Predict the 3D structure of the following.
Amino acid sequence: MGTRLRIGCPVWACAAWRGRLYTRDAERKDYLPQYAEVFSTVEGNSSFYALPTEAAVLRWREETPADFRFCFKFPQDITHRRGLRGAGDLVHAFLKRMDPLGERLGPFLVQLPPRFGPAQLDTLRAFLRSLPAAFSYAVELRHPDFYDQGPHEAALNELLRDRGVDRGHIDTRCLRAATVLDETTRAALARKPALPLRTTTTGERPFLRFVAQNQATAASDWILPWAETIAGWLAAGLEPHVYTHTPDDREAPELARMLHAAVAARLSGLAPMAAFPGETEAVERRARTGPQLSLF
């Protein structure tokens, strides 16, 4: 198998992961290096809101191995405020800022709002043509007409295949089955779209964002079908990029591990996921201290 499963989380700077994914006393500067010990990619959501500093980009390069991949979102000023029109200056600034990451750059995600529909398909075509061929891209569309199993969807898929651009998929079915509606779940339900399921591939790097509930184990029924699909993508020589979300992010790493294990059970030769540094530290701590003796 010449390709690999790239699986990760939407962020890496999550203090709630200390003692589990991260070591108990990990500081913010330790998060990305420890994250990259386990995962080979991350979905860079922060770039949707603001560009990172030049110093941060250079630091991220130093803190990750050469085979790690950052998959940043295009800024909302480009995708939502300008609707991909007249944004050449912003696109140039964004790609120039990220360019020092070099080979560590995975597909950039062009996430478009629900109002961006088939009437704007020519706008998307022109935008994709304007992008530098040196990078790779995925496009996530939320307008319901792009899921019509008819002419609009066919035209979209044809455009993406012609450009070698991957179609971004988002699966929120598990989230929408939640019965425990805490504050973070309610917020996620308000933000995340309810779209028909698709597994269409239009490029070489299928792009999936799997959104579950805060308790990772609640996703079991939805993970198994995706494991079959992802195993098929890998067997076909594709390189899936998969990101596991939970409303509060706390169990996103465990969700990624569950999905990775389900794929590995269906596909021989898939390298096992590395142990979480925080869990390894806990085992080593217990080994050093030995069993705790009772006072009675």
